[in-house]
Amino acid sequence: MKIRFACFISLMLMFGALKAQQTEKLYLSGTGNDDTVNWDFYCTEGANSGKWSTIPVPSNWELQRYGKYNYGFDKEVNKGKEQGLYKYKFKVPADWKNRKINIVFEGSMTDTEVKINGKLAGEIHQGSFYVFRYDISKLITLGEENLLEVQVSKHSANPSVNEAERKADFWIFGGIFRPVYLESLPQTHIDRIQIDAKADGKFNAQLTYTGDADQLLVELLDANGKRLGKKITTPIEKSNQKLAFNHQFTSPKLWSSEFPNLYKASFTLIKNGKAIHQISKNIGFRTIEVKERDGVYVNGVKIKFKGVNRHSFYPTSGRTTSKKISIADVLLMKEMNMNAVRMSHYPPDGHFLDVCDSIGLFVMDELAGWHGTYDTAIGIKLMKEMMLNDENHPSIIFWANGNEGGHNRELDHLFSEEDIQKRPLIHPWEVFGGFETTHYREFNYGIGNYDHGHNILMPTEFLHGMWDGGHGAGIEDYWNAMWNNPQSAGGFLWDFADQAVVRTDKNGILDTDGNHGPDGIVGPYHEKEGSFFTIKEVWSPVFIEKREFTAGFDGSFVLENRYAFTNLNQCTFEWKLKKLHGSADDEFKAGKADAPNIKPFEKGKLQISLPSDWRNFDVFYLSAKGPEGREIYTWTFPIKLPKEDAEKLVKKTASSKVTLKQDAQGYHVSANGIDYTFDRTTGLLQQVRNLRGIIPFSNGPIVQESVNNFKNFSTKMDGDNLIIESKFDKKESFNALQWTIYPSGWLKMDVKYFPSSYFATFVGLNFSYPETEIQSVEYKGNGPYRVWKNRMKGTQFGIWKKDYNNSATGEPPWQYPEFKGYYSNLYWCEFIGKQQSFKVVTDQEDVFLRLFTPKKSKDTEYDNMSPTFPDGDISFMNGISAIGTKTQKPETTGPMGMKHVFYDFEKEPSRALQMTLYFDFTGR
């Protein structure tokens, strides 16, 4: 017993003191676009070709002023087919003697020939987005200078590679665009580890190695360095180069997009008690299960994927990115309350997957193939390279074999054969493997088909953004249908960021190739568009039922927990009451609320203890933060109605009197230094003049989607107020206009009108005001982003000051929020002109303000977006228009995208639409 105990102690001391050789790396390039190394470079065609110079590596050579820029839709005769020749001298450490040395390329576009000291390292590698390596142990000289020569052909000699990678709807680049490094391993070393860690603690691993070892040591550490279970050793049978390791761990912390718990799994080969080689992998315990005709389950919970497609892209460096960019991208996705991302349409940088692992995003990893496919021979090779590099990332829960017809079906069986985890395989845009992933179905077709179908519904692209269309526009209708359909597994938007590249051949302009590239929710440098905030609200995992702040409000909100794994008692809730003054001196009271115990997919109540004077404030803000402290969303609830503001703002009385002069053309009214001219026949406001001069606001109200049949005007005094009004007639003048001029000089307009058509794109009243005169606006309402009929969410209620800009979404200078467009829930607005200012106030709810007409960006040949606006320059609307997407017209994105429906065949005044506005032209 003593001898056995002593042996045990010796073994424990030995294994505790083991220090294995690691795989060593020596970078020959930099690590990303923020860390590069200059190599000698020669380009064969295009800009700066025909001469040796230097180029940073990694990079795409177009961004370094070489070769030709190409978008994937370019005609074949215009496609760049240049080659890049690289040279770099390097030394290998002398202490790498008797080790295996690989040279590793993480990505090179497209065909890559590698020579070391004049000798080929191996066969030419074809395919851009895959990690490949050559054993150069016998080609290098230790401790001395070695010459690396690389020839990169942008156009592949293999036609199928061009079909899969180059004839695509994205920019086509050339060059060594991901890092290059040397990899040094001991002669006995681990070649591959495949890990499957299940939610129940079952841990399976398959390991292949080269050399001679007699034991394998396995250890798992959590993020704090605490070991999960014990160190485990298992004997290795002699001459067996493939190992299977199985163990049952107790109560591991599980990995999900909400709780991305990671463990570091270390594998050490041992020979005669000596540690030979060690490799560590970050892994997560989680189980993925697809239940036929039901859904996708992660750790036993049915998941709705809130995803986006993402290119590896940055404007100044093309496909060369960095870990900093990966972190920024993932954080923006999480900020939008997304839980998933699809790699479109090729495997990403390894650091992007690392970030998805650590911050928490479900990933669909994709073998390239836009509409064309790799041939089987090259496809097998590239698929295995993708699998070898990416397989152990817990964030990856789907594989995708190409995109939109780019599926080589002869490769399908390999995914299951190569993947120890047996993750589901998707054919995007196809009914395959029990999934319906069809792209861009119209709302009625898609949802109708979905509601009566049998497959799991998960469109891998369901709203195609372009300019300001898509994404936020339509998502609320689609998501409501997806959320309430038990067979829906959610879906993925197209796409994350505008693909605008810096054109070094065109004085540095940002180029989206017309309407091919401006498809993002954010701009090229991550500028947030209005849709960003709409998505954030619609995809909030805390759903708040609509609530009006009436006198009987008791401070309670009904919440629905749309998290999959998080109880709402793990979140925090904060509130703020504000009196809005439009300045930094806004008065407020704030507090916290006890987070309610509401389990995933259940409803409950959040109770706010409000102060007794809460009705004296203008607005209530409710903020929710997730367990990690990140804001989920901040909702706003107006407390006071527009009529209460109007009662305070509108001044009616003054010591002066209202005077009226009439002639054949018009009514000329004066009050408190303000002169008005109204057309005697039409009743329209013709001119406004105050003591400083003319205010160029006129020619209204023009009724949109109706007729200006105001007729038979008359005047009368109502106390001290002058009234000018039309006479109602059910046939001839069923639209009615009334002006009231107060002694203060304030002007009131009342319009009652009937739309001319059963269906109306928008309804409201227009005025003329020169765009050249406007400087800014300050308004109370929802902002600061504009809205569309099918994109109403994502704004906040407050007082907003907006300077004029002429920004068009998705175009330079990507200045957001835009100025021109529709704004919701107007209370009042001050129009600040270059010469004079004036204010408009309403006492009605749900009034939209329209500011001018934004530029109409170039649509596709189908003209789907239809971003229509009323006539005139400034409008006050009862209903506004929707916007379409690249692939759908507004009315096919769901009920919110359809036209307004009005009908009243009797033309009774009590059933008319109404607009009441007050105008203050005293100026400032």
TrEMBL record:
Biological process terms in GO annotation: lactose catabolic process
Domain Glycosyl hydrolases family 2 sugar binding: 53-186
Molecular function terms from GO: beta-galactosidase activity; carbohydrate binding
Official protein name in the record: beta-galactosidase
Swiss-Prot/TrEMBL cofactor(s): Ca(2+)
InterPro entries: B-gal_small/dom_5, Bact_Beta-galactosidase, Beta-gal/glucu_dom_sf, Gal_mutarotase_sf_dom, Galactose-bd-like_sf, GH, GH-type_carb-bd, Glyco_hydro_2
Reactions it catalyzes: Hydrolysis of terminal non-reducing beta-D-galactose residues in beta-D-galactosides
Chain ranges of the Beta galactosidase small chain/ domain: 718-835
Annotated signal sequence range: 1-20
A matching Pfam family: Glyco_hydro_2_N
Complex formation: Monomer.
UniProt KW DNA damage keyword: no
Gene source species: Pedobacter yonginense
Keywords: Calcium, Glycosidase, Hydrolase, Signal
Glycoside hydrolase family 2 immunoglobulin-like beta-sandwich domain: residues covered: 188-286
CC annotations in GO: beta-galactosidase complex
PANTHER family the UniProt entry points to: BETA-GALACTOSIDASE
UniProt family annotation: Belongs to the glycosyl hydrolase 2 family.
